[in-house]
Amino acid sequence: MIIRGRCWKFGDNVDTDAIIPARYLNTTDPRELGAHCMEDVCPQFAAKVRPGDILVAGENFGCGSSREHAPVALRGAGIACVIAASFARIFFRNAINTGLPIIECPAAVVVIQEGDEVEVDIAKGLLRHLRSGRKFAIEPFPPEIRRIIEAGGLMNLVKQRVR
Questions:
Q1: Contact 83, 103 (CB under 8 A)
Q2: Do residues 76 and 82 touch, judged by C-beta distance below 8 A?
Q3: N or C end of the chain: smaller count of CB under 10 Å?
């Protein structure tokens, strides 16, 4: 699986309330959540993000509550992948469960600027920064995690397997 997209850049400790404000948690609809994604941090985000864009952030991305709404909102907004220096553990698992690829690569986060394009090869474990041509080794997902992501989330994978 190869993901190529334009980057949006955020800092450290972006919590789940910043990703999707609590006032919108009365729905689980990805499109509705996506329409409000990051709005308190970057009001124009949902209107300007394009399907396939990539979110880049610093340390501890997704800290805060354990709600699955945060990765669902990112996917609903069109984000194809999140690259961060590190992730909060519960967000990491929720992202995988909902089919959102997440990549830990502190060295790439330092290089990537807002608007840059990157290419991520999840199977090979390679991230390419297209402006500079730099390549970064990333931990490839194990086959089972790749299957979850390719299915669009754990529930979709389970549905495929029980048919």
A1: yes
A2: no
A3: C
